[in-house]
Hints:
about 325 residues, mainly alpha, 15 helices, flat
Amino acid sequence: MSELSLVTPPARTDTPPQRRDRTNLLRTVLKRLVTALFVLLCTATVSFFLVRLSGDPVKILLPPDATAQQEHVLRASLGLDRPLLTQYLDYLWGLLRLDFGDSLVYGQPVREILADRLPATLELAAAALAVTLVIAIPAGIFAAMRRGRGSDNTVMTGVLLGQSTPPFWVGILLILVFAVWLHALPASGYGNLANLVLPAITLAVYSVAVVARLLRSSLIDVLSSDHIRSARAKGFGPLKVVLTHGLRNASLPVVTVVGLEVGNLLGGAILTERVFSWPGVGQLTIEAISNRDFPLVQATVLFFAATFVVVNLLVDLSYSFLDPRVRTSR
């Protein structure tokens, strides 16, 4: 036998593509989770110290004619007489146990108060997101297909107005028209679909403008690519080309913006809930800031920060399913 036949071929060290993809995805998720925890820790720290710069809550909780002894007793009962570092470490220890403390004003656990107000905010944000997608996606597709024409200019003018108009002003205008003049919809309240219409539209106006504008721009870039020209050469109609071949390729930046807008919808609900007296977390945040309710302010700020972090993580993970090139590059 020759020497070549006695040589054992080297073992294959190539990692299967599917296993490599799972490893890369797991590594990406772990990195994002570590970053998310660091962001939440920074948010909790900043909110803890900044909220204490707003003043002493004891001055608000007690009547104006309260004595210094009464203030001292109340401050001690709330734990505000302890060193600031001790209060901070106790706060972090509570966060590890998902204990946000008790509200200074309501006297209830902050976790229970948030649980009561959260459904209203989620309902409003979900309705606003639905309005955004229902209006923005058709508007963006229509404008991209009619690029440079009068209808495209009309849509882009509406988008510009939506981006430049303050949401609280939109809410006041909608109340004036539909509640005061037409008596068609209630100006405030909570509990049925009619109460949800005006706040959802108000909250969605800016998001509609952002998503429609980005989708139009992304589609215009995709429609000029070679594979789109090949699809047109095969005799596919314009709408089928856009929906079948163009929309998915143009969806990656849109998904990013939609994910960010989910966080913006929850954060932007603060002013919208105030205008329409909507009993959600946004309204609760304003009340907590006005009352210097330290634990409640800290919890609501952390809630909004956690929402942005979770949404961004989900958006990052969705890239792997929308574009295989992103999955293989990680």
